[in-house]
Amino acid sequence: MLTIYSRIVVPFDGSVLSQKALEMAIKLIEQDKRIELDVLTVVNNEITGKPVYNVELQQESQRRAAAELQTTIKEKLALLPNRTRTIVLDGDPSKMILEFAKENNSDLIIMGSRGLSGLKELYLGSVSHHVVQKAACPVLIVK
């Protein structure tokens, strides 16, 4: 039985590595039905360096994509006896992940080493790197 962690949060953006992180979290929570799992999708409202002609349309598109991701996640989690939640937040992904984990007393963050951003960083993506540096709880990076 895994009793070290009681609440795990998984930031999920649909990337292959976020899917692996979710699978890892599911394997962990299956060991103890008392462990709670929060799956967090963040809609980034920040304007990137790419040209954006209709910001509202882009944000609505991102929200629709996040809702579709959440539907898929809910189907995966439905068979678990654990308490699970899927949450969509708006804002800067790094900041929202950290705030959510702190406000919800998460004691473990499991996330992919990089997500869907187009940036190719040397070791970690910018979001995972920031979360590792600033998180108040342990962070498990999946690659």
Produce the secondary structure layout.
Layout: E1 7-11, H1 16-29, E2 36-43, H2 55-77, E3 84-90, H3 93-103, E4 108-112, H4 126-134, E5 139-142
Parallel strand pairs: 1-2, 1-4, 2-3, 4-5
Helix pairs in contact: 3-4
Shape designation: globular
N-to-C terminal Cα separation, in Å? 25 Å
CATH superfamily: HUPs
User: Which series of helices and strands comes N to C?
Assistant: EHEHEHEHE
Binned, the helix content reads 25-40%
- Helix- and strand-based class? alpha/beta
Largest sheet, if any?
5 strands, parallel
Q: In what order do the strands lie side by side in the largest sheet? A: 3-2-1-4-5
Overall mean pLDDT? 85
CATH architecture: 3-Layer(aba) Sandwich
Radius of gyration (Å): 15 Å
Q: Quote the CATH topology.
A: Rossmann fold
Percent of sequence in beta strands:
15-25%
Strand runs, count: 5
The oligomeric status of these chains comes to single chain
Low-pLDDT residue spans: 118-124
* Total count of domains: 1
Q: What is the CATH C-level name?
A: Alpha Beta
Instruction: Count helical runs.
Output: 4
Domain UspA: 5-143
Protein name: Universal stress protein YxiE
Organism: Neobacillus kokaensis
Family: Belongs to the universal stress protein A family.
